[in-house]
Amino acid sequence: MTTTLEKAPAPTPEPRGRLAPVAPYASALQIAGGALTLIGALLPWATFVLNEGPYPEKATLEFFTAPLAVTGFRLHLVLFGIAAIVLSLVTVPARGRMLQGLGWGVVAVTLANTLYLVAEGGGLGTITAADGAVAFGPIVALVGGALIVLGGSARRREDKPVWAWRSNRYVEWAILLVTYVLLLLLVAAVLTSGGQGTAANVYSGAVFLSFLGAVGGLLAALQASGLLTWIAAVSERHRLFSVVVLLFVALALPLTQAGTEYWMTVAANIGVYAATAIGLNIVVGLAGLLDLGYVAFLGIGAFVAANLSGAAAAQFDIEVPFPLVMVISAVVAGTFGAVVGSPTLRVRGDYLAIVTLAFGEIFVRSSQNNIGGFTGGSNAIPGIPPVSAFGNDFNDELIIGSVELPRGALYYVLIVLIVAAVMLVFGNLKNSRLGRAWIAIREDEDAARAMGIRTGPVKILAFMIGATIAGFAGAFFAHKTGTVSYESFKFLESVTLLAAVILGGMGTIPGAVLGASILFVLPEKLREFADYRLLLFGIALILIMRFRPQGLVPDSHRRAELAPDSGVPPTPGTAAKAAAS
Predict the structure, then answer these.
(1) Which of 76, 172, 293, 347 has a 20 to 30 Å separation from 121 between CA atoms?
(2) Do the beta carbons of residue 118 and residue 124 sit within 8 Å?
(3) Do residues 460 and 341 make contact, with C-beta atoms less than 8 angstroms apart?
């Protein structure tokens, strides 16, 4: 008689560490947190009236008489509280991570509004008055958010969802179309949240931070659910369709609530920095060459365009057509890029950074001293004529049938097309043999040379192509701003561009665009905080790099290096072998 021993199923692993005692009560914590968030949203948030009117959405001690009229940050908290309760009662994969995202969103919204109340109201008396009155709204909401995070953390060991649903291409196209339209509306809402504001209107900055916290919590929950990863996979399967739709969606921004002259100017400036950051991404992200003077190439392109524009202060008394000006500016900047790259063949790392920093400083000092009369010195080069086409200046309003585009919308359309062209160039270069050679040099220059890669010419090409793209963007910058001054190309601008590449994701196409957008929009939206603007800006960068060191949109290699849970790190030398093949 043979006895067969069956292996008992492995017990379900339980959370370990400090969260283990609260694991059995995770659902209760989540429900309680959601309920407290709802209650906190409806309670008063201030003990007295601020700025000759109630703080947004009736923040005084009076309770709501019409709960359905909840708007603003209170609406965000109500929605997050309801979502937390619903997720606590249903069984879905990764609900612990989703609840964590919602909980952090509640905490972010609550802190943004509480800090504004304390700062604007003159202290904690805004929440707790001397006569004993207490505004329990922020206190209860903050406790609710903390309970949601705690309950979600106890369930982090739940399996991650796997979205494997596939359909015919037309259904997936429809899903992508809806997704990109929602993305357009979200971008427009982020830009316009809080209004434009002034230095004396801190309220608009607080509204922006509150809305940004709510958006961050929502995106964190969607990412935890696997929905965003699945949409990214669908987009990759239909890459051409996604690119075309994204281009049209970007061009449609002037038709949203962000279609004002102010935001068109901001968006055009974002486009200039995005195109320049993509060029820097070739030097830093692909080739791994640390360049701290890259903004000088943007300045070279701008000054060349200014001198060929026919401006009164220009060195040359000629006016070259704008398309030809952009080509000439790109060629001149690329030539300087090759010249700067040649002496750096034998230096690496910190020494390369010092050499490029020196070039950037030489350019700024030369521009400031007006050497050769090409930069205008401290007087700059003003009066650069705007771009015109078909008898219309790009600075003017444009009416097409019943559609009225604001001033500067044509510049925005032009920079979108320029960025799209630069992204196309970057994508083709990255997937080419030259791009693989750059990546091999970035990973290990000695191994790349041993595999037969001519590292010297390849590094010079990286400098030259990156500088060419920067010069191309500089020509647009000169005609858009109408004035070119050396103050626009100081060392801080190079640092900002480098931070945009690292923050967005080194070596990726959308990473540089997203990084440049964030680094330009955040200071613009936080301008209302005056002296605290750079402090908040720095804190935001520290938090992003702490929790997302691989960048917001990392490529597969960086994700494998800095996020080992997402995959297996590549074998050393693989990039060099691929480039040599």
Answers:
(1) 76
(2) yes
(3) yes
Rounded Cα distance between 518 and 509, Å, is 15
pTM above 0.85, yes or no: no
User: Which tokens sit at 122?
Assistant: 């003159």
d(CA 504, CA 550): 9
Fold of 259-580: ABC transporter involved in vitamin B12 uptake, BtuC (1.10.3470)
Please give the full DSSP string across 445-457, using - where no structure is assigned.
HHHHHHTT--HHH
Q: What is the third-level CATH fold of 18-163+202-214?
A: de novo design (two linked rop proteins) (1.20.1440)
Residue 520 phi/psi, 5° resolution? Answer: -95, -40
CB 62 within 8 A of CB 137: no
Q: Which two tokens mark 75?
A: 């609406």
Please choose, from the candidates 280, 281, 330, the residue with its C-alpha nearest in 3D space to the C-alpha of residue 305.
330
The structural domains of the chain, with segments of one domain joined by +, span: 18-163+202-214, 259-580
Query: CA-CA distance, 345 to 350, in Å (whole number)?
Result: 13
Q: How far apart are CA 152 and CA 94, in angstroms?
A: 9
Tell me phi and psi for residue 134, to 5 degrees: -130, 130
Two structure tokens written together for 563: 């996020």
